[in-house]
């Protein structure tokens, strides 16, 4: 574990560990989202936060206005603003890491529901906002370190064969670009292979699992419980996914 010496006490100060959260709705979190069928088709979050997602004094999140605040569910409420956000995988991920890391944990939510990978190309709004937020997370503090990008996206690329076939190239390009733009050539990337999709889900899953780049690993969400829409993970499934992401990170990247 990298540390910095505190000049006042001459004792090592643990690095603050930062994780970028990006992709679309299942990363933004739809766990616990309920459709109000009695009055109108609006949706709301049931407000249930499982113990695995409880806040911790050492967990912070970067707000839409680039300020640090205590991290609570729903993490993406001010980022994915056109949809109702609920429980995602990041808080259970952070809680699973807590016993194993020394420094504080900071989460940078960037995911937006319904976005296709072409919207995460360099120069596009989603991509540029993610890079801006990632840079801001370490600005002015050399004791902060971006440890990994957690990526869960692809459902929007399963509707046409063309998009599904282009996914692998587009994802590899995104990985190259974000590492270059953050000046982190070895930035760990943990991507999630889809649990759901529309027509060409398996083709996108094959692309995700077929990416063979250094420090890029894939966690498979297939088989995790889905809500009635057969698209979004339940709260319990999000907790499971967070634990899977934490295990992958600790196994492959924690040093």
TrEMBL record:
InterPro entries: Carb_Esterase_6, SASA, SGNH_hydro_sf
Protein's UniProt keywords contain Nucleus: no
Residue ranges occupied by any Sialate O-acetylesterase domain in the UniProt entry: 16-250
SUPFAM superfamilies noted in UniProt: SGNH hydrolase (SSF52266)
Annotated keywords: Hydrolase
Gene Ontology molecular function terms on file: hydrolase activity
Entries under Pfam families matching the protein: SASA
Listed name of the protein: Sialate O-acetylesterase domain-containing protein
Natural source organism: Canavalia gladiata (Sword bean)
